[in-house]
Design brief:
Rossmann fold, 11 helices, 36% helix, alpha/beta, three-stranded antiparallel sheet
Length: 328
Amino acid sequence: MELLDVGLKEVSSAIDHISKMASPPPQTGLSLMEQHIHHEQLGGHLPTRLKGLDEALCGGIPFGVLTELVGPAGIGKTQFCLKLSVLASLPSSFGGLDGQVVYIDVEFKFSSKRLIEIGAKSFPQVFSMKGMAQEMAGRILVLRPHSLSEFTESLQQIKVSLLTQQVKLLVIDSMAALASGESEQGVPTQNSLGWHISFLKSVAEFSRVPIVVTNQVRSQSSDETCLYTFQGGRSKDTNDASRYDSHLVAALGIHWAHSVTIRLILESKSGSRFIKVAKSPMSPPLVFPFHISSSGISLLDDHGVELVGPDISRIHNQGHSEIINFCR
């Protein structure tokens, strides 16, 4: 009123008009469902071929969001990523996405030999065709940045590839390794990742491809509190955790945890391996036993057991090693 020298009625009318123009119109659940049906491609999924997990995720790894794999070293995160790479590059006639894959191999764990073995054992009818193994492997572009800054420089090129080429999957294995390297140089991990989180989420939304990111684990500080179930809670008796059955939590902190839409936890307990759906907008917390064979990860039971309480986010690892501990 003072700046424009107008009355209260005029100012209120202007604010009301601006608010209506700037705010998105409200939508009902029915209208959103109708839009989803009309634009079915926006609700696509990359099937993992793990029946119980695909059912829990309503079809598999969803397009347009960040999906995170968390677990200790050697639990099977890279094996999972290799299998997803095979599935994304597999011809559509065999249930794949018939596309290319951008694989960010931070820890130099990508193995083309293992990739072809997984493909040949899982889809012998495809890989037995002459030249098919070479063609499938040729669809996977592997980048190996040595630092977070080098990764940052390549992101714009990656974005262009996702939007202009037939890229159907982006894998970052692992984001925690990039962040830990930056943390060792004195750069706060949370601050250094803020821009990358926003960039990856925007790329996922506009390119409509599944983005899978692996994360490492860290020991839980005794003074940490539980804010959200998928973040992990304080153990009531920290003396119970032994060297052979320890409770760990995901690295990278709460800002990162909020940014991922799906969090899958891989853990080892009582001599068996399990995969948990710890965070998902379409599924309750579930856990499935699995094993790793020549064909990759396979579920031992397609009927997931529902979890409650702090065990949803606790990460068990018998005889674990190589646990990173850096500032969140």
